[in-house]
Design brief:
alpha+beta, six-stranded mixed sheet, 55% helix
Length: 503
């Protein structure tokens, strides 16, 4: 009987005693009324020592075979025997979430309450007490009971009798001797003319880089009239440098091809509609947002523009999870890659433009896809600028770094970008010079000089003066890709295969 039912019965009895006293005056009616009033107090006083010292013990076998009887027993302990106890028992199946059950068990005296557990399937059953109440003798008052520790019951599979092994024939040929296995795949030999072309283009790009890095006096490059003779020479070297990087990438492309298991098969290289929609969103929606921020907001609402760019970056990423919810471990991998980029940028704060952010963005795009690469690049620039300072440049940096990560993922999926060091380093240098520098230089004109001063002369001036900085950025990207690309891609492959991430 529940406590409300006992109290209802007592209320009826008390009401009857009051009516008896009202209609039948005398000592008997008075005694009946006093007995009805004092009886609950007497029951509480008598039952209180047992209620305060009451306890619970769960008992069940630690392991049982499948389809065998397993009984969970609940005992009531205490200094004095309590009148009654109600216990809410929960049985959780750790191997099959969602198949939990619970029920109330009633205990009286020293006899245990029993619950036969379901052992139809192999499982790990966790039996615990959710609630426990001890009552007085009348059931009008109750107190909570301290809950004991949980009991775990392991349901093991039933042993199966194995059939005897058949005898082996005597004429089995001996096993071949162990020998060292060599990989089946070997990279194709690079023709001599391609080796020469790669050596010449690489040496030329390195010479231009060293020459441009030595030009530190910008007043000799530009003046009030625009580019000087040295500036025009720097501009020509800028174009030649980009061309040499492109030639180097084409020359060593086949040589840097990794084994077939690392590259995507041909049938999986086709871009999905989701990726195409993401590309359209990145190439159309974000530039429109930046245009509105420059021409209509006068670069004053860069915080709002940054948030809008971030949301537009997140939309293609979450399109990856079409038809299902994203798992926490998938988001954790993205967060960890962003954290590594931010920490790397902060660690090299003393070296201008010598940062590992672009290298981490390219690695993320190759390992996790273009959408993830875009999100890692954009989010890394936004978060790291909280340390370096936010400004009108933040949305532009987010867009530049994000589009590099997206291109890395798309080109790798199409088979145009290889996972070898040479290919990744060449791609990183090309992105630092052509994409990041090619977007940030005209953006600098819009940010500092204003849209009305955007002419070919000012644009070329910003390109020439930013060329040494772009070279340092390219060198940093090549350095970090050379030392970190292969080990990080291997670790990310293991994580993807183990947890089935972003598949």
């Amino acid at each position: 009987m529940r406590v409300w039912a006992a109290r209802a019965v007592y209320g009826l009895a008390l009401g009857g005693a009051v009516l008896f006293y009202c209609f039948y005056f005398g000592q008997l009616a008075w005694y009946v009324l006093m007995l009805a009033v004092c009886l609950p107090l007497f029951s509480l006083v008598v039952s209180l020592p047992a209620m305060l010292t009451a306890g619970i013990v769960l008992h069940a076998p630690a392991a049982v075979e499948r389809e065998k009887t397993c009984v969970l027993q609940v005992y009531m302990l205490g200094w004095m025997p309590a009148a009654r106890m109600e216990v809410r028992i929960s049985v959780e199946d750790r191997t099959h979430p969602g198949q939990d059950c619970a029920r109330w068990l009633h205990l009286r005296g020293e006899a245990p309450a029993e619950w036969e557990l379901d052992t139809a399937h192999c499982a790990a059953l966790r039996c615990s007490v959710r609630r426990a109440w001890v009552y007085d003798y009348l059931g009008l008052f109750r107190l909570p009971v301290r809950r004991p520790g949980a009991v775990i019951v392991t349901v093991r599979p039933r042993p199966v009798a194995l059939s005897p092994e058949p005898p082996l024939p005597e004429d089995i040929p001996p096993l071949p001797e162990a020998r060292e296995e060599t990989p089946d795949w070997k990279p194709p030999r690079l023709p001599l003319w391609r080796k020469a072309l790669a050596a010449v283009s690489g040496a030329g790009a390195m010479a231009i880089f060293l020459y441009a890095a030595n030009v530190t006096d910008l007043s000799a490059v530009v003046d009030k009239g625009g580019l000087t003779a040295l500036g025009q020479k720097q501009l020509a070297l800028y174009l030649v440098f980009c061309g040499l990087l492109l030639i180097l990438a084409l020359a060593i492309g086949r040589r840097s091809r990794p084994p077939a298991q690392v590259q995507l098969p041909v049938e999986k290289r086709r871009l999905s509609r989701r990726t195409t929609a993401a590309a359209a969103s990145i190439l159309l929606l974000i530039p429109v947002t930046l245009f509105v921020g420059v021409y209509y907001l006068n670069n004053q609402r860069y915080g709002l523009v940054s948030v809008l760019v971030l949301l537009e970056c997140m939309a293609p990423f979450f399109l990856v999870f079409e038809g299902r919810r994203p798992q926490a471990r998938e988001l954790v991998v993205i967060a960890v890659l962003c954290a590594i980029s931010v920490a790397g940028r902060a660690a090299f704060f003393m070296l201008p433009q010598f940062k590992p952010v672009m290298a981490m963005t390219i690695i993320s795009g190759v390992a996790l896809g273009g959408e993830s690469g875009f999100l890692v690049g954009a989010l890394s620039m936004l978060v790291s600028n909280m340390l370096f300072s936010q400004g009108v440049w933040t949305p532009w940096q987010m867009f530049c770094m994000g589009i590099i990560g997206f291109l890395a993922g798309v080109l790798f999926r199409k088979g145009l970008l290889r996972r070898a060091r040479g290919s990744l380093c060449t791609f990183g240098a090309f992105c630092a010079i052509v994409i990041y520098g090619g977007i940030m230089n005209p953006a600098s004109v819009l940010m500092w000089a204003g849209a009305e001063t955007l002419t070919w002369k000012t644009l070329l001036t910003y390109y020439v003066t930013g060329f040494p900085v772009d070279c340092v950025h390219a060198a940093a990207t090549v350095f970090f890709l050379w030392i970190a690309a292969e080990p990080m891609l291997e670790k990310l492959d293991r994580i993807k295969e183990k947890y089935g991430l972003l598949t």
